[in-house]
Design brief:
Elements lengths: L4 E2 L10 H9 L11 H14 L3 E5 L2 H12 L5 E5 L3 H4 L4 H6 L2 E5 L8 H7 L11 E7 L10 H14 L3 E4 L3 H8 L4 H4 L4 E5 L10 E5 L1 H13 L8 H16 L1 H15 L5 E2 L9 E6 L5 H10 L2 E2 L7 E5 L6 H15 L2
Parallel strand pairs: 1-11, 3-4, 3-5, 5-6, 6-7
Antiparallel strand pairs: 2-8, 7-8, 9-10, 10-12
């Protein structure tokens, strides 16, 4: 049976053997009643690691982000967010359906919104024609693979505080961002009132994300999680893997980053690919083809060699490293690509 090397995303990771055993052994209760001991441990651990008063286990990152909007905002308010963010592109328009808010986007640079651009879009006063600004959202690390500088986050939160607007951080890969910056993750999350962090992106848990914030915010979010159908019962089986995600797996993320840079360096040796390895911040390797290629032929060759990848789109492609991808895999991947693209 072929062993597939899956580079489509870091959401494809399988739970580690240690996670599988922890899930098997997990002590459970009923989380809706609030008495699942493993969930309680996970939420306390997550709150501490993220530097917040409280945390809540939710089924997915999209669920966590949408729950944050639903808990921060009133219907008809406006959320300021970077134009290429996950909230805009990959959450199925949930902000309009669930929270009843509209998104006011800003085209950023590498995911960074300029403070002056944010300030121009904050609604000031009480003009009855205008929606109120209910929230500002940041994403770090960004889906483009870049990590936002702490200074940019500090500028945003200072502006938000001046106008009394809360800040939510889509921190799906916030532990990757901390690994890149070489700082404690709390140095990032202190620039937001709430944060969502995925347990299943790169950290290898099979399901689950964390929403963290003040105790009052999480109490409200817990009620709204139930309203959305996100109340879970013996969720300790999930939480057990989440505990290892936040401890063992978060600590090894620099290995994925090093492998991503190695992949980028190898790809840079192919004449038909444009990539700057020094701009690879985390485990997401984006590159552009500088010549016409046969995308179908490339994907067929990769599949034949045992690799799964998302196809090129508008001349660009993304490959993602994680705990189940090693350097031998990378060497074989690049050689397969070289044979298709350069021979």
């Amino acid at each position: 049976m072929m062993k597939w090397i899956d580079l489509r995303s870091d959401t494809v990771t399988h739970p580690t053997p240690a996670m599988r055993q922890a899930m098997f052994d997990a002590e459970v209760g009923d989380d809706v009643y609030g008495d699942d001991p493993t969930v309680i441990r996970l939420e306390a651990l997550a709150a501490d690691k993220l530097g917040k008063e409280a945390a809540l286990l939710v089924p997915s990152g999209t669920f966590g982000n949408q729950l944050a909007l639903f808990s921060h905002c009133r219907r008809g308010e406006e959320v300021i967010v970077e134009d290429s963010s996950h909230l805009v592109w990959h959450e199925a328009g949930g902000a309009a359906v669930i929270a009843g808010v509209q998104l006011r986007t800003i085209e950023g640079r590498d995911g960074v919104m300029a403070a002056a651009d944010i300030e121009r879009r904050i609604r000031v006063g009480d003009d009855i024609h205008e929606p109120r600004t209910g929230l500002i959202c940041l994403e770090n690390a960004h889906g483009n693979g870049k990590v936002l500088p702490l200074s940019a986050m500090a500028d945003t939160v200072a502006l938000a505080r001046a106008h009394g607007v809360p800040v939510h951080l889509d921190g799906a890969r916030v532990f990757n961002a901390a690994a890149h910056l070489g700082c404690d993750v709390r140095e990032i999350t202190r620039h937001a009132d709430s944060v969502m962090a995925c347990l299943s992106k790169g950290l290898a848990a099979p399901i689950g994300s964390i929403l963290a914030g003040s105790a009052d915010f999480i109490a409200l979010a817990r009620r709204k999680r139930k309203l959305l159908g996100g109340g879970m019962r013996q969720a300790g089986v999930i939480a057990a893997s989440g505990i290892l995600a936040l401890t063992e797996m978060a600590a090894r993320l620099p290995e994925d980053h090093a492998n991503a840079r190695y992949l980028a360096e190898r790809l840079a040796g192919l004449p038909c690919i444009d990539i700057r390895p020094d701009e690879v911040h985390i485990n997401l390797v984006w590159f552009r083809f500088n010549a016409d290629i046969d995308g179908a032929e490339l994907m067929a060759a990769l599949k034949q060699a045992g690799f799964l990848a998302n196809p090129p789109h508008q001349g660009m492609m993304r490959l993602v490293t994680h705990w189940q991808v090693d350097r031998d895999d990378i060497d074989r991947l690049v050689e397969t690509m070289r044979q298709v693209l350069c021979d």
